Structures are given as structure tokens and as C-alpha cells.
Amino acid sequence: MAANITTEYKMNNKVMLIQVIVVLFLCINLLLITTFFTKEVFYTTMRYVLFAVTLMSDCLFLFLAVILNYSRYTIQMWLCLIIYIISSLYMFVTPVTLTAMTLERYVAICLPLRHAELCSPRSTLHGILIIHSLSSLPCIVFLSIFFASASYSSYTQVRICTLEIFIIHTWQGHLTSAINQFYFLIMCITIVFSYVKIMRAAKAASGEDKQSTWRGLRTVGLHALQLLLCLIQLWCPFIESAVLQINLMLFIKVRFFNYITFILAPRCLSPLIYGLRDEMFFNALKKLALCGLRKKH
């Protein structure tokens, strides 16, 4: 009895810690999104628009991920299905957008004469549509199998909303894993290709161009780290499912570690990469914060 109370107490503390971190993260992101709309140059430049897409995607995904991972309340399956569709889509939107941002840096540094043409506002809109289309494919495949296999009565069942309730066949999980690894491979190849090309351009550049190129190289390096953490997250459900069959307490610890390391951590890097490292955006953020303090006083 005492052991159960202690376990419940620790679990509640973990849930509260995650909720505090998510709320803090959402506040920071909302401040950055507000800053994004303060200057025309931000919402007419591809890299800032893609940055805003990652911020909005991260906000929505984290909010829904808390429900999927740590909600212990039962809801009807159809509502859980809607939550899963949105969270699954935006789980992929961030890494795919990071890949697009890396390609934008590659074009800016290695193909500067074509940057205005390839990264125009019209191209940015097309890029966002492509990002969401690519991000929706794994979810479409996964749910097509579920819709073909699940009975009509299952949609009205009341259950705790988790990913596991949608896995009906063993091979369904294997197919999803294969799709995730394919995305992982393509994104990794894109990152490595861009990094090598930018590194060569950095060695060949001189003066101010060299400084700008090395700054772009560091940005791509941070994108690579962030993308790696996001992509490892794609393997987490299958690792957790395997651990669950071994030990329940170990499963709880592994899920908590995965959530902090591969869901929260990479999404905390987005504000750092463009919110604080980018001089123009940081100055706009500082100006907005100072204006807010002056109004308060």
C-alpha cells in the first residue's frame, strides 16, 4: 500500500513538472510568434516564416502530447482519434520543416544568386503545403490500416487515449517503423549534404562572406542536433512498447526520459537558434519586451 502511494506521488510530481515546462515553453513561443508579426521582413522572408511554422507546430504538438502521454482520463475513441491525427501530423511537421530550413541555408550560402527566386514568398507558401503533405503521409498509412481493421463499435468505446490502442496488428507497428526510418534516412542525407556543401563554401569564402558562411554552418549544425533528437522521437513508441512487456515501472521511467529528451528538448532549441542567435529577430524581441515593460510601468 505504501509503495503504491509513493509511486503515485512520484508520478504526480513528474506530471506537474512536465506541465510547468510545457506552460513555460508555450509562453516563450507565444512571445516569439508575437515578435514574428511585428515586422514585415519576418513574414516575407522564408527562413523566418519556416521558423514561425516550427513554433506553431511545437505549441500544438506539445499541448496534445501531454494529453496522449500523461492524461489518465478516459475519453471516447473518436475524440482520441482526432487528437492522434493532429499530434501525429505535427510530430512530423517540425523535423520536415527543419530539413526545409537547412535547404534554405544551403541555397542562401551556396546558390546566393538564385536565393531570391527559390525562396520567394510564393515559394514559401508552396513549401509549407509540401511540408504538411509529406508530414501527413505516415498518419494516412497508419490510420488507413486502423479504419480497415477496426469495428464500428470501437469508435464509441471509452478508453485512455494512447498510441497503443490504434495498433491492431503486429505488422502495423513494423510498417510504421519502416516509414519512420525511411523519413529518418532522407532527412539525414539532406542534412549531411547541406552541411558538407556549406563547409566547402566556408573554406572558399573570405572576409565578411566567410563570417556569414561559418554562421550559417553553425546554424545547420544546430539544426542537425535538433533534427536528430526529433527523429529519435519517431522510434520512442516502439521502444516503449517493448519495455512495457518487460516491466511497468521501467516503462514509466523510459517514457518520462523520452518525453524530456526527445520531445521537449529539441523543441526548446528552436527559440535558441533563431529567437536568440539571429540578431534582427533578437533586437525585435528585445524591443517588444521593453515596450511591454514601459506600458506596464
What does this structure look like?
With 297 residues, the protein is mainly α. It contains 10 helices and 2 strands. A two-stranded antiparallel ribbon has the order 1-2. Helix 2 packs antiparallel against helix 3, helix 2 packs parallel to helix 5 (121-149) and helix 3 (77-110) runs antiparallel to helix 7. The longest helix is centred in the first third of the chain and has 35 residues, at 2-36. The model has no long low-confidence stretch (mean pLDDT 78).
User: Mind describing the biggest β-sheet?
Assistant: 2 strands, antiparallel
Average pLDDT metric: 78
Oligomer: single chain
Taken in chain order, the helices and strands follow as HHEHHHEHHHHH
| Count of helical stretches | 10
Radius of gyration, CA atoms, in whole angstroms:
21 Å
N- and C-termini, Cα separation: 54 Å
Unreliable runs, pLDDT <50, ≥5 residues?
none
Task: Report the structural category.
Answer: mainly alpha
Helix content: over 70%
Total strands = 2
How big a fraction of the residues is strand?
Answer: under 5%
If strands are numbered along the chain, what order do they take across the biggest sheet?
1-2
Global morphology: globular
List strands and helices in order, with pairings.
Blueprint: H1 2-36, H2 46-70, E1 74-76, H3 77-110, H4 112-118, H5 121-149, E2 158-160, H6 170-204, H7 207-233, H8 236-244, H9 248-276, H10 279-296
Antiparallel strand pairs: 1-2
